[in-house]
Design brief:
By secondary structure, the protein is mainly α. 67% of the residues lie in helices and 0% in strands. The chain has one domain. The radius of gyration is 24 Å and the shape is elongated. The termini are far apart.
Length: 61
């Protein structure tokens, strides 16, 4: 019986902590763009040159 009296408040506290983390992530926009990461993996990086490669090409000329 003493274990239940200890575990119930711990379980409620962890549940409230999880709910608070979920509500915080909703408020700051973590779930706004669900398809963006899935589409970014399909984009070829070879087409666009990085700024560092452009800088080094300019130094060579």
């Amino acid at each position: 019986m003493n274990g239940v009296l200890l575990l119930i408040p711990i379980a409620l506290g962890l549940g409230l902590l999880g709910l608070g983390a979920f509500l915080w992530s909703m408020r700051v926009g973590q779930f706004d763009d669900l398809d963006g990461a899935a589409m970014r993996i399909l984009i070829d990086d070879d087409e666009a040159e990085s700024p560092t490669s452009l800088d080094s090409a300019a130094r060579l000329n």
